[in-house]
Every structure is written in structure tokens, then in C-alpha cells.
Amino acid sequence: MKAFYVLFAVALGVSTSCLGAETKECDTTGADEGSVTVLELHSPEQLDAFEGCTILNGHIIIQSDYDGDFSLNGVTTVNGNISTVDEGAEYLNLFEMQDLENIDHLHLLGISGDVNIPNLESLGDLELVQTSTSGNADLTALAEADNLSVRGSWTSTKFSSLKTVTVQCQFCGSQTCEIYGDERKFPYITVNLPSLEKADKLEVAGAVKRFVLCPWTKNIYSHS
Ligand SMILES: *[C@@H]1O[C@H](CO)[C@@H](O)[C@H](O)[C@H]1NC(C)=O
Ligand SMILES: *[C@@H]1O[C@H](CO)[C@@H](O)[C@H](O)[C@H]1NC(C)=O
């Protein structure tokens, strides 16, 4: 029996390393038998199931007890959402998907760490809500979003490629912007949108550390 397990482990090791450079499609349910298309994520260890995956099908919902970093590199496409529960995931530290290019929607609420998705090119809704006193959001490659909302103390934001937001582009560093957690923390936000050409609505509120907008964004105001 023991010999059988050893042989099986060796065979698995060889086949995954051979597939390393190719596309590998995985379902979020693969890590959680029985659920439909939603994986409820309670701990970073559950992400080990997606080692080597390049395409993820289904949703991931980060639970409020999730403690640690969310690091899922190698995945380029998510056919689904990655979200925290509505009440937020305050122990979620770094959120990192270095290779991600496309995802349906991303909602990270009540988090306390940096967000690093430097290769994401487009998505539907993007919601980033910070509860700590400082945070960095790197979305350097993002060119297009439907509805974007960045709230809380994001002291550094990189949206250098963002051209089009079809619905609303909101940056809020005010205590009145539904910021989760300790209300005494004073939010302080950086708004850096040097490439923005079109947004149906642009809203910036609260204490702004730095505000950069390209000079030809007058289109933004033509609708309001
Ligand atoms: C995915 O996100 C969209 C838009 O933000 C939302 O309407 C939908 O309910 C979400 N689905 C799940 C399963 O979280
Ligand atoms: C856009 O996002 C904000 C913040 O997440 C939300 O309150 C609003 O309802 C959204 N609008 C649309 C049209 O989806």
C-alpha cells in the first residue's frame, strides 16, 4: 500500500511539472467539494489547490475570518468574481495577483493591506475599501472598468493606464464614504489618473493627498 502511494506521488509530480508552461483551467469548486460555483475562502492554505492554474472558473468569496495574504500568481483569467463578504475581511493583508489580466468583478471591502494587480487590463466593477491608515494599490495596466470605487486611506494609487470608466469613477477619502472599521482613523487618499479620457461620473471626496488628472478630461464633465 505504501509503495503504491509513493509511485502515485511521483507520477503526479512529473505530470504537473510538464504542464507547467501551458494553460491549465481550474474550477473554484475544485477545492471545495459539494458547493456550486462559489468557493468560500477561510484561509490562505485553500489557495494551494490552484497551484499551476492559469484560468479559474467560478467565484471566490473571502470570508471575514480570513487571516493573512491572498497570493495567487500564475492565474491570468478569472471567469467569475473575487469578493470579500460585505462586512469586510479586516485580517486580509496583501492581495496579490501578479499575472491576472482579466476578471469579471473584484470587490475587496474592509481590507487592511496593499493590492497588487499590475497586469490587470480590464474588468467590470472594481471596489477597494481600505481600513488601515495607509495602503498602496497597483493597477498600473488597467485601461477599462465599468464602475470603479476606491475608498479609505489609499496613500498610493497607481492607475496610470486607466482611460475609460463607463459608469462611475469614485475616490473617497472621507469618513462619510462607508469606510469599514475604526472610524477614528483619518483617511487620506491619492488620486492619480493621468490617462483618464472618459468617465460618466467622476467623484472625488474627502482629504486628498495628491490629485493628478490629464488636461484633456473635459469629456468627463459633459454629462453632468
Ligand atoms: C459578481 O459581481 C457582480 C457585479 O459587481 C454582482 O452583481 C454579482 O452578484 C456578483 N456575483 C457573485 C456570485 O458574487
Ligand atoms: C457603482 O459602485 C458603487 C460602489 O461600489 C455602488 O454604490 C453603485 O451602486 C454602483 N453603480 C452601478 C450602476 O453599478
Automatic annotation (TrEMBL):
SUPFAM superfamilies: L domain-like. Keywords: Signal. The keyword Signal applies. Residues 1-20 form the signal peptide. This is Receptor L-domain domain-containing protein. It comes from Penicillium angulare.
